[in-house]
Amino acid sequence: MQTQSEFTIIGGGVAGLTAAIALKKIGRDFHLFEQVKELKGIGAGFGLAANAMQALEHIGLKDEIECLGYYIDSFAILDEKGKILVNPNTHVLSEKYDQKNFAIHRADLHLYLLSKIDQTQLTLGKKALKVDQKEEFVDVLFEDGTSHRTKFLIVADGVKSPIRQQLIPDSKPRYSGYSCWRATIDNTDLKLKKGTETWGNKGRFGLTPLINDRIYWYACINGPQKNPVFKNYNIRDLQKQFSTYHRPIQEVLSFTTDDQLIWSDIIDIKPLKHFSFHNILLIGDAAHACTPNMGQGACQAIEDVAVLMNELINQKNVISAFKSFEKRRIQRTKYITDTSKLIGEIAQWENRAFIAIRNKLMKIMPAKMNQRALNKLFEQDFMK
Ligand SMILES: Cc1cc2nc3c(=O)[nH]c(=O)nc-3n(C[C@H](O)[C@H](O)[C@H](O)COP(=O)(O)OP(=O)(O)OC[C@H]3O[C@@H](n4cnc5c(N)ncnc54)[C@H](O)[C@@H]3O)c2cc1C
């Protein structure tokens, strides 16, 4: 069988679609396979922090994506009565690095990325099951019994990636201990302008404005994995759960209908030792899925693509580019996975005594210390 494309990308999420655009920009031949039959853009919102905007600038997509985002100039953490625990100054960092933080609707981003790809280079409804890797090529085997031969394979099929689990059997997703509900709703009457996240003993509740008068909210509650009780949770259950929390949480919930709810358990993967396997490369959540507590999963996927594009331009061949990519990405993504996990564990505490101590410490912590985590994220130039 002849090689059917130089590069093949598995997965049409943020990582896969951005990688496709980057390959197109540097004039490389590729084909992308996605399991769903229609990429219509689902989900709620997410943050595109300044580091993701910097990566998008390298890829040449920043200006257009900025227009789809809502500028976030602060993101306070509150206690359940609504008192500020921490209010990191993202403004200072944005000015220093000349990049702003945005919130974007996942569907807006997906549809924009999709519009940049030639539809002839995309096949939908193809679920990759496994690979047959050889020195000179890789055969990707699909659920429908067909296969595709490629010189180089970019695996971007998310946290549950079957190809990653074939290459590293010990890389099954791990459950965080909490589940998450989210929704995007109309903001015309609510008129919320600021992003906030509330930490209390019944769970966490986050709110972020989006463009076109919308907001997205999310709620994280502790419980067993695949909890049948959670599966049937509706708005009334969430209203009860957060009944003691400050305004406007009840109002936000009352503006949401049951059919707008998206529910999933929060999972990540233990940091891997390798992303590059000769002619196969893992990127995005397939390589380093993290819990959403730093709002960095998609941001890291975009950083991956900026670094990969840079390596493909500068290295003498693709195998060296994949190896060098791994070297540049392993430590940074490990830091984010580990730190996000830790933040999630502390944020989800239920014991009132521990919470009282935590909140006191958060309030008295000098602003400089609060800034440290943000600095670590932004100060390190991931393009070096
Ligand atoms: C509640 C929540 C909040 C979040 N908030 C933020 C945030 O604020 N900021 C942020 O940066 N990140 C956030 N994230 C993380 C972010 O959503 C992910 O990191 C990001 O979507 C990863 O992109 P990806 O393309 O690697 O994977 P995915 O988005 O999972 O895309 C994978 C794609 O591959 C396809 N696919 C899967 N398996 C196969 C297969 N076998 N064959 C073919 N195709 C396949 C899927 O259908 C999908 O289209 C959040 C995540 C959650 C759950």
Which key features would you list for this structure?
binds flavin-adenine dinucleotide; eight-stranded mixed sheet; alpha/beta; globular; single chain; 384 residues; 14 helices; seven-stranded mixed sheet
Report, as a whole number of angstroms, the end-to-end distance.
Answer: 40 Å
What is the residue-mean pLDDT, rounded to a whole number? 94
**What portion of residues is helical?**
25-40%
What is the CATH topology?
FAD/NAD(P)-binding domain
- Beta strand %: 25-35%
Count structural domains.
1
Q: What shape does the CA trace take?
A: globular
CATH architecture: 3-Layer(bba) Sandwich
The top-level CATH class is Alpha Beta
Helix-and-strand structural type:
alpha/beta
CATH H-tier superfamily: FAD/NAD(P)-binding domain
How is the biggest beta sheet arranged? 8 strands, mixed
- SS elements, strand count: 18
Specify the number of helices: 14
Low-confidence stretches: none
Which small-molecule species are bound to the chains here? flavin-adenine dinucleotide
Our Rg estimate from Cα atoms comes to: 21 Å
